[in-house]
Amino acid sequence: MTTTHFEVLPGVDERRRAAIRGVSRWISPGVDCSNCERQWLVIGPSYPTRSLIGCEYEPLCRSGKNLPFADFDVVRASLSERTGIEEILPGTNIGPLVGALSGEQREIVWVSVWQFLFRRDVWKMLARAGLQGIEVADAELVTADSTEALSYCEPELYPGFSVAAPRLCSTCGFRELARPSVIRVSNPLGDAEPSIGRLASSPSVIIANAAFKEICSNTGIVGFEFRPIS
Fold first, then answer.
1. Bridge partners, 108 (sequence order)
2. Residue 68: pLDDT above 90?
3. Which of 118, 132, 133, 193 could form a disulfide with 123 if both were Cys (CB 3.0 to 4.6 A apart)?
4. Which residues touch 97 (CB under 8 Å, ≥6 apart)?
């Protein structure tokens, strides 16, 4: 059977060769649910092209606070209207990554196993090679030992893939997150499958299709490990 989808992870030694200390400019509040008695937020969802400048909840999204679910629901609705993000989960990253890079200025720099940046020239090369349908935003990145600005950008990876993940709380929607063994396409942007995106029920998992893997191979990009899924 031909492998059609892959989990995308840092390539060998990538995180040892370069490291970023930084966070997105805004992060939606976590949830404190009185029904399931969980305090939680998700890891992974990131929308670097969106902005909360001028939003009444902008200071709250810099505070790192948890909210009762009823309050979070009000904030979520306002953030969705402001940003156009269909589903704001607790802990959603919004806006550009702000931070400092230490180590090598690699083609691909991993912030964590669920977030990475393209060097700008590499992104342009991938676009010329046929990678389409992905928006990027410039990161506000400097070198760790100076104020030299670096030219990196973060792709906006939509939750375009899904697996069955039943909700465990009828109030806050908490799910048991698990890595997939089989995936199906569920792209909120239309019928076309995204070349690379996030798993909707577990957005720390990045999924790419065979076309994305082939473009990276043809252009000599080595910053990714592609682990077969299906």
1. 118
2. yes
3. 118
4. 20, 22, 23, 24, 25, 48, 111, 115, 117, 139, 140, 141, 154
